[in-house]
């Protein structure tokens, strides 16, 4: 059974710092991995999707990497801003469905 | 392009009452998902539709929950009767799964409070 873990559960950083969020999964037989952002009281916004054959994806200040063999993905946020404050969730897709982690709650201090 | 639409956004009901949630996916998306998200947790899949067929409903509590997706477009999730433990956010998502993308797009969710 696939299990997805995100560490740390919460993180506070000063504005301008580069930071890394971690996602680990127990079953490497995945189809893809998707990173989301969730603002309080809102739905999930897709940030990046990495197919199982890919090593990384980039969008603006965001870079996501995938290492299937070690069961890990990282989300790198460059030059963090207060507007980046949110909960970040990763979701791993197996044969049929996505399994979500519990998220990392990020706070960027001005 | 309109995103995934859900209604209502909030619902407060007493236990044992029925409740229904509605979702309209992104136009052209053939796959629709219903998730439940408890406070401080990630979403958990309740049911997944491919067009109008429910292909994964293993996590749906079938004694009280039901869902339908008529004509393979919008969908309704119903709870009858509601219990206190059903208080959560119910999220709908859709994706276009021909061609292998499977990227999910979420609606804003319905926050259910059962008193």
Helices and strands, with pairings:
The complex is a heterodimer of chains A (110) and B (115).
Chain A lengths: L3 E4 L2 E5 L4 E7 L6 E7 L5 E8 L4 E4 L2 E6 L4 E6 L8 E8 L4 E3 L3 E6 L1
Parallel strand pairs in A: 2-11
Antiparallel strand pairs in A: 1-3, 3-8, 4-5, 4-9, 6-7, 7-8, 9-10, 9-11
Chain B lengths: L4 E3 L2 E4 L5 E6 L6 E7 L6 E7 L2 E4 L8 E4 L6 E5 L8 E8 L9 E2 L3 E5 L1
Parallel strand pairs in B: 2-11
Antiparallel strand pairs in B: 1-3, 3-8, 4-5, 4-9, 5-6, 7-8, 9-10, 9-11
Describe it for me?
- The complex is a heterodimer of chains A (110) and B (115).
- Chain A is mainly β.
- In chain A, 0% of the residues lie in helices and 58% in strands.
- In chain A, the strands form 2 sheets. In chain A, strands 2, 4, 5, 9, 10 and 11 form a 6-stranded mixed sheet that branches. In chain A, strands 1-3-8-7-6 form a 5-stranded antiparallel sheet, with no helix packed on it.
- Chain A is globular.
- The N and C termini of chain A lie far apart (41 Å).
- The mean pLDDT of chain A is 94.
- With 115 residues, chain B is mainly beta.
- Chain B is built from no helices and 11 strands.
- In chain B, a hairpin with a 6-residue loop joins strand 7 (65-68) and strand 8.
- The mean pLDDT of chain B is 93.
Descriptive terms for the model:
heterodimer; A: 110 residues; mainly beta; six-stranded mixed beta sheet; five-stranded antiparallel beta sheet; 11 strands; 0% helix; 58% strand; globular; B: 115 residues; seven-stranded mixed beta sheet; four-stranded antiparallel beta sheet; 48% strand
Describe this structure in a few short sentences:
The complex is a heterodimer of chains A (110) and B (115). Helix content of chain A is 0%, strand content 58%.
| Average predicted confidence as pLDDT of chain A | 94
Coarse shape of chain B: globular
Helix content of chain B: under 10%
Q: What is the count of β-strands of chain B?
A: 11
Q: How many helices of chain A does DSSP assign?
A: 0
Number of strand segments of chain A: 11
């Amino acid at each position: 059974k696939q299990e997805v873990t995100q560490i740390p559960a919460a993180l506070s950083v000063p504005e301008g710092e580069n930071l890394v969020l971690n996602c680990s999964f127990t079953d490497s037989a995945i189809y893809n991995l998707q990173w989301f952002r969730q603002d309080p009281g809102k739905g999930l916004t897709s940030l990046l999707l990495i197919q199982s054959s890919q090593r990384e994806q980039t969008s603006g200040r965001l870079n996501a990497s995938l290492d299937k063999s070690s069961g890990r993905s990282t989300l790198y946020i460059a030059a963090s801003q207060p507007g980046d404050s949110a909960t970040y969730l990763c979701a791993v897709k197996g044969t049929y469905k996505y399994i979500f982690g519990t998220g990392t709650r990020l706070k960027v201090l001005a | 392009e309109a995103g995934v639409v859900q209604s209502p956004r909030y619902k407060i009901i007493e236990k044992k009452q029925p409740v229904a949630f509605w979702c309209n996916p992104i136009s052209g998306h053939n796959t629709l998902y219903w998730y439940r998200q408890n406070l401080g947790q990630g979403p958990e899949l309740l049911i997944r539709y491919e067009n109008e067929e429910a292909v994964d409903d293993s996590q749906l509590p079938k004694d009280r929950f039901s869902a339908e997706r008529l004509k393979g477009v919008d969908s309704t999730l119903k709870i009858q009767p509601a219990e206190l433990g059903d208080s959560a956010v119910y999220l709908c998502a859709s994706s276009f799964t021909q061609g292998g993308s499977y990227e999910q797009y979420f609606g804003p969710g319905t926050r259910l409070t059962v008193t």
